[in-house]
Design goal:
The chain is mostly helical. It has helices spanning 7-23, 26-35, 41-49, 68-80, 87-93, 165-193, 205-231, 234-259, 270-280, 287-302; strands at residues 107-108, 116-118, 125-126, 135-138, 147-150, 195-196, 199-200. Strand 4 (135-138) and strand 5 form a beta hairpin.
């Protein structure tokens, strides 16, 4: 099976990276953190106009007509840029919730356990639900992922997310891969700039190995996500989410280690990657759920 992106797919990825670099670069990211503005409606509409949310809608329905492999590439870039907002839920709602495809509506989802919902105050709709419930704010580890706890709503507490769960997990895994790859870049760049004992710290074996392990985890996770996007197999999606969560969380931790004391300061971006990775690891499919699914598949195959 050939997993190399086609020329059109590479162009798509480059275009999204260029768009996000121009519209949501580091300055915009830090401004969002300072103001606490988790969703920029203007940017949301621009993403909609660029086809971010309508990417997989048929052209006859006003979409771009592409598939899950292309969506994975686009979400990888969004993860790399640490773009905040309910990107996955709004993408899944395209063609279902009015305004989602065009980016004029913000759609969230019950994709967390315990009745937690991200971006509830910013949302116009909740995926799979008839309305937007009330909720109580809960302190979030990620400054750009506000959380609310919602009381039992209708006849269920966590919404009917099953039709969207596998795709939601895969697209979230793609976000994690983008974040993991970005922390590799940050660590390698800092290791080449920071000097100790008259040479860059990247010359020391301990730092080299740390960066190499980060890259291996990120590339293995990226390969798993690309493969799952092609096959759509639930087991492969679960494995991809497991690997991507590990690559993002451990990658951010190792990036902090490479940065030393500087990495623990508010001014560095590394902690933002780690905090976002922690939240995403709990969205759509947790590690425990993925492991249970894979274990069940192994048992079935052994019978």
């Amino acid at each position: 099976m050939h997993f190399q992106p086609t020329e059109d797919q590479r162009d798509l990825r480059a275009g999204v990276r260029e768009l996000l670099a121009g519209r949501y670069g580091r300055g915009a990211l830090r401004a969002s953190v300072d103001t606490g503005a988790a969703v920029d409606r203007g940017l949301w509409r621009e993403l909609g106009e660029a086809g971010f949310f309508a990417l997989r809608l048929p052209e006859s329905a006003g979409g771009v007509g592409l598939g899950l492999p292309e969506a994975v590439l686009v979400f990888e870039e969004a993860g790399r840029a640490l773009l905040p907002g309910p990107l996955v839920a709004t993408h899944l709602a395209a063609g279902v919730v009015p305004g989602a495809a065009a980016g004029t509506a913000v759609v969230t989802a019950f994709d967390l356990e315990g009745g937690l919902v991200a971006y509830l105050e910013e949302a116009d709709a909740v995926l799979g639900e008839p309305g937007v419930p009330a909720g109580s704010p809960v302190r979030s580890v990620d400054p750009l992922t506000p959380l609310h706890r919602v009381a039992p709503y209708g006849d269920r507490t966590d919404g009917d997310r099953s039709p969207y769960r596998a795709q939601g997990a895969l697209l979230t895994a793609a976000l994690q891969v983008g974040s993991a790859l970005r922390t590799v870049e940050l660590a390698v760049r800092y290791a080449g700039e920071r000097e100790q004992f008259g040479q860059p710290i990247g010359a020391f074996q301990a730092v080299k190995h740390l960066c190499a392990q980060m890259l291996v985890r990120a590339e293995v996770a990226r390969t798993a996500v690309y493969a799952a996007a092609v096959t759509g197999d639930p087991g492969e999606v679960a494995a991809a989410k497991l690997l991507a969560d590990e690559a993002a969380v451990r990658g951010a931790r190792d990036c902090l280690q490479v940065h030393g004391g500087m990495g623990f300061t508010w001014e560095a971006d590394v902690h933002l990657h780690l905090k976002r990775a922690w939240v995403r690891a709990e969205q759509w499919r947790t590690a425990g759920e993925a492991e249970e699914l894979l274990a069940a598949e192994l048992l079935d195959s052994a019978v």
